[in-house]
Write a structure and sequence with these properties.
Number of domains: 3
Strand order of the largest sheet: 17-18-19-20-21-22-23-24-25-26-27-28-29-30
Strand content: over 45%
Number of strands: 33
Number of helices: 1
Structural class: mainly beta
Radius of gyration: 35 Å
Length: 367
């Protein structure tokens, strides 16, 4: 797997923004979240975090004092503008245990906060002084590093351990990961203290390239969904299905493509190419007993059905009654024509050729 840019988290520090309720968020992110992502729910005034194990958004039950003004992405550059007597609240997500310093509060005030684990830090200006509230976050994907396999180590690339994303490389049949205290390095893992061996790491994928706005999701039904802005595929229960068109590959190995009210099927079972209309077979391309390609078209109805069969050897048109018995047929081949003619007792139209009661060949004339 090769990636040149960390693109796992959308938004600053994994924050998708401030939404008034879950529905507006789902309108912008219908495919769900990514590990480590969260948003501020203005309706519940709390932080909601994506739980990648349950594949759902969960309320952390960490209340955010109103009014929420914004999300802090970089403590050292955080310099808020607040006014006396006007409350304000800012939220910062500490992704791991550590000491977090906010050096640029108004009038030179500095605030230092220590956390024992990933936490939500609320900085509240009550109109007079700054107060802070720290709530541990224990949802899946928060605080734990996510490893990004970058393939064989190369001196042409710079590797990093930032934002909870840790680069992993392979060198001489060993895996190495960038140490958490190292923001970036291009040193060789076997010759540098910037790296540590990852003995339990195993890379399965050989290459996985995702363009912007594309995702791969594994949901609670163990379905894998690959999606971008225009197209989505589900792989589940032995089937692969295209969500927008309904095209799918069945457990039996049949490729089924909807065509309006009809369906095209390429099947190893029927040994051919079949089109169904109203749940009835209307066309099939397959091989006959002599391995000759044959095109068969049918027109089923309540009283019976018509069938036209075309092969390199002959063209045959038949009519079957409601019991499936062939009543009439006509064929043309290199050897000539053959068929069953109408009888004088049949319903005849002008121009029909038929056999009269004396077994003479006649043509129906107008009365």
């Amino acid at each position: 797997m090769r990636a040149t840019v960390h693109s796992h988290l959308r938004g600053d520090n994994g924050c998708l923004g401030l939404y008034y309720g879950l529905e507006p968020l789902l309108a912008d992110f219908p495919e769900g979240g990514l590990p480590g992502e969260f948003f501020i729910n203005g309706k519940s005034q709390s932080i909601w975090i994506w739980d990648s194990m349950k594949q759902t958004w969960c309320d952390s039950n960490h209340a955010v004092p109103a009014p929420v003004i914004g999300v802090i992405t970089d403590p050292k550059n955080f310099s808020p503008t607040v006014e006396p007597g006007e409350p304000a609240c800012y939220v910062y997500i500490a992704r791991e245990k550590g000491t977090y310093v906010f050096p640029s509060l108004q009038e030179g005030a500095t605030l230092t906060i220590e956390t024992d684990m990933a936490s939500a830090i609320s900085l509240v200006w009550d109109g007079t002084v700054w107060r802070n509230y720290v709530t541990p976050l224990q949802f899946d994907g928060i605080g734990a590093p996510h490893f990004l396999y970058r393939g064989l180590w190369s001196a042409q690339y710079t590797y990093s351990s930032t934002g909870g994303i840790v680069d992993v490389v392979r060198l001489q049949d060993k895996y190495y990961r960038v140490k958490s205290a190292v923001e970036s390095t291009n040193e060789k893992p076997s010759d540098s203290d910037d790296w540590e061996e990852a003995p339990r790491f195993c890379a399965i994928a050989d290459q996985l390239d995702l363009r912007p706005n594309e995702l791969i999701i594994l949901d609670e039904r163990q379905c894998i969904r690959t999606t971008n802005l225009l197209s989505s595929w589900d792989m589940c229960d032995g089937e692969i299905r295209h969500l927008e068109t309904g095209t799918f590959l069945s457990q039996a190995g049949e490729l089924r493509v909807p065509i309006g009210s009809a369906e095209l099927v390429i099947s190893p079972i029927s040994k051919g190419f079949v089109i169904y209309g109203n749940n009835k077979k209307v066309m099939q391309i397959d091989f006959d007993t002599d391995k000759i390609v044959t095109l068969t078209m049918g027109d089923p109805h309540l009283e019976g059905s018509y069938r036209l069969s075309v092969s390199p050897r002959q063209i045959e048109h038949s009519y079957f009654d409601g019991n499936g018995t062939r009543v009439r047929y006509f064929s043309i081949s290199a050897n000539g024509m053959n068929g069953i003619l109408k009888k004088w007792t049949d319903t005849l139209s002008e121009g029909d050729i038929y056999v009269d009661e004396n077994n003479f060949l006649k043509q129906k004339q107008s009365e």
